[in-house]
Amino acid sequence: LAVSELESSLLYKAARQSAHATIEGYITSDPTYQEGISSFNLKATAYYLDGMASDDRRWRVDEEVRIKVRSRGRLKLGMGDGIRVSGRFAIPKSSGDFDYRRYLYHKGIMSVLSAHPDDIEHLPHQRLTNISSMSSVVSSVMSYAGSIRRWVKGINSSYLPPDCAGLLNGIVLGDISTIDDEIEESFRSTGLTHILAASGMNIALVLGALWPLLRLLRLRPRLQFGILVAFSALYTMVSGMSPSITRAFVMAIIALIAWLFGRGKDGLTSLSAAVLVILIINPFTLYDIGFQLSFVATASLIMFASRFERIMSELPKALRTGLSVTIAAQLGVLPIMVYYFGQVSAISPIANLVVIPLTGPALVLGMVALPLAALSKFAGALLFFVVKIILEAMIHLASTLSKIPGASLSLGSPSLITVLISYPIIAALALYFERINLKLRLWHASLLLIGLVTASIWWQVAISAPPTGLEIDFLDVGQGDSALITAPDGTRLLIDGGPDPGTLRKKLEQRGIKKIDAVLISHSHADHAGGLKKLADALTIGSIIYPRSMKDSRASSAL
Q1: So where are the chain's domains?
Q2: Residue 424, Cβ neighbours under 10 Å: how many?
Q3: What is the DSSP string of 307-326?
């Protein structure tokens, strides 16, 4: 029904006809800026045909649109702002391996509007046409949350160096737009990217800080409930309402309701109810990778963390708890991570064990430092100095661990059937290890580990083995060209790289390629050389060959 409704919508028809039109609405996502284009989602409430904002050509609409504005810098727009924008509609276009159309489709967005900064007009919420009272309240709250979000980022950047400020924005707000590419890559290859997404730990912190205070004030339970829900909702909106934080928020509400009525709480029941609520509100969330990872990780923690803790009963309490949580969560998300990204972090359990203990203090002190800095610059600077030390330690640990040989293994993408089959196998192994004695656990765990390592090495050799003859592989990198030539002796020559570094890198990782003997760049145009930027950070390159005309160009300096 949701798909049928979108495909019959007025804005989708406008996109199919490449119509020029004007729409009104409020911004529902944090605007991003990349390569001269500002992008954000807009909840459209009114549509004016042919760009004429007059009542006789106006239709009421209620759907999301992706807005793309070519600009020289970041637009002065924020989440919740009401705007009127004119531009040309289009169907989203995909590039290379990244299916942009499907990506937006799974977010309930079927059309893109391209505009110029001069075609955007700020509108107060009361001037938005056809907006319902509920939508008006939502947009106003979102605008307030967006202001807080920008204030937090401003304070962080004032007291911390860029690397640390970007990391703290990720931990507190789930905002990775300001994180350095190298830091993000080190967190990705060590299985620590979940730290950069606001999640259940953040909600637990908000509730854990407020609840004792409310009890100390001897407020009535219903008033406590209302205050806790309000603050949790505001934080959820401030942190961007990602699937993981929304899931945690709904589960927290269910737990609070159970407390209010004196009922017991069950983790799986709360998780199931949270998923049901989220999918009723937006069925397309089911296709969101963040939602899938959050759901599976939480389910795995609920079902297996205590079992793994019993399995490791001989270990010290602190180590046992940390390992059980890490292993349960990592095993849960492993099949999905391999399915989508074709990679697995072999160092992830160790990385999580040493970095996660620092995340809590960074989050707590980072949030406390914000109001403290507003009250006293000296006190704020002092606390932010402590936060800086913690964040630098996290960055150093992630960077060091990511450089260990074999930290990240390229396995290729398995079939969906393989992913689905893997979960019963993981569950069966967990139940089996829980039932046997310690001696058998150690023996069987050793055999299992040896088997997994052997299989990984064999697979790495298999997918990276040289061909029997000369092999030329034309890589689908979207608009532009890229070709990989592999000689019988294993020597590899890469010719051009398309426009996007991420697409090229994924293509090479899927083939298990860690080394390119030579890179040949035909010319400096972005659709040929753009994808080669920072390629040396991901794999070893023997030499780079390019025309003399590129010697002093931006493309050569970027490489």
Answers
A1: 2-131, 471-558
A2: 9
A3: HHHHHTTTS-HHHHHHHHHH
Q: Is 176 helix (H, G, I), strand (E, B) or coil?
A: coil
pLDDT per residue over 362-405, tens digit each? Answer: 988 998 899 999 888 999 999 999 999 999 999 999 999 888 87
Per CATH, the number for 471-558 is 3.60.15.10
**Distance, C-alpha 55 to centroid of its chain:** 41
Q: Please tell me what DSSP assigns to residue 469.
A: S
Residue in this structure with the two tokens 């509007």, named with its chain if needed: 113
For residue range 414-457, list pLDDT tens digits in order: 777 888 888 888 777 777 666 666 566 565 566 665 656 565 55
Q: How far lies 70's CA from each of 32, 33, 39, 80, in Å?
A: 12, 9, 9, 21
Q: Is domain 2-131 given the CATH code 2.40.160.20 in the classification?
A: no
Residues 6+ apart with CB under 8 A from 189: 343, 345, 347, 402, 407, 408
- CA neighbours closer than 13 Å in the CB half-sphere of residue 460: 13
Q: Name the burial class of residue 182, with classes exposed (0-12), middle (13-18) and buried (19+) by CB atoms within 10 angstroms of its CB.
A: middle
Nearest to 292 by CA among 273, 278, 306, 313: 278
How crowded is the C-beta side of 350, counted as CA atoms within 13 Å?
13
Which 8-state DSSP code applies to residue 535? G
Residue 447, burial from CB neighbour count under 10 angstroms (0-12, 13-18, 19+): exposed
